[in-house]
Amino acid sequence: VQLQASGGGLVEAGGFLRLSCEASGRTFSRYIMGWFRQAPGKEREFVAAISRGGTSTYYADSAKGRFTISRDNAKNTVYLQMNNLKPGDTAVYYCAANSDSNYFTMKNYDYWGQGTQVTVSS
Fold first, then answer.
1. Strand 67-72 to strand 9-12: parallel, antiparallel, or no bridges (unpaired)?
2. What is the pLDDT of residues 24-73, one digit of tens each?
3. What is the spatial distance between Cα 29 and Cα 78, in angstroms, rounded to a whole number?
4. Which of 33, 47, 74, 115 has its CA 20 to 30 A from that of 24?
5. Which residues is 38 bridged to in the sheet?
6. CB-side exposure of 103: number of CA atoms within 13 Å?
7. Partners of 77 in beta bridges
8. Which of 121, 67, 55 is nearest to 93 (CA)?
């Protein structure tokens, strides 16, 4: 599976962005999909994940109430809608595909996209 993330950019605090991640291949619906982020000088961290059918979603505390993960299996795409962005959200955002059952741990994700930069100015 190859993943291509897009949608990052520069936005003012309080603004919004919608990240997309398109997967190659015909097995997209077999994978749990997740978003992670890595800020400068910090470790990569979990942001959100969604079940294979899209019925279950999970969020880091920092994302709850502001971010929404969704997927369209017909389009092989997962999205991350980010509202009310804060400077602390500045990071490179990565999408990843997981054939396991653990939603939150990076090592369970088999495939990673190249990342898209999100910068939130104050």
1. unpaired
2. 977 999 999 999 999 999 999 999 999 999 999 999 999 999 999 999 99
3. 10
4. 47
5. 92
6. 16
7. 22, 72
8. 67
Query: DSSP assignment of 27-41, as one string?
Result: -GGGSEEEEEEE-TT
In degrees, rounded to 5, the angle at the alpha carbon of residue 18 between the alpha carbons of residues 105 and 7 is 90
Query: How far is residue 40 from each of residues 36, 46, 97, 98, 122, measured CA to CA in Å?
Result: 14, 15, 23, 25, 17
Residue 119 carries which side chain, given as an amino acid letter? T
d(CA 112, CA 14): 28
Among 33, 34, 84, residue whose Cα is nearest residue 60: 34
CA distance 86 to 74: 32
Helices (H) and strands (E) in the chain, counts: 0, 11
Token output for 73: 């299996």
- Helix, strand, coil fractions of the chain, as percent rounded to 5: 5, 50, 45
| Phi, psi angles (nearest 5°) of residue 44 | -65, 140
Residue for token digits 């990052």?
A: 8
Show the CA angle centred on residue 84, arms to residues 80 and 87, nearest 5°: 95
> Is 91:38 a contact under the CB 8 Å cutoff?
yes
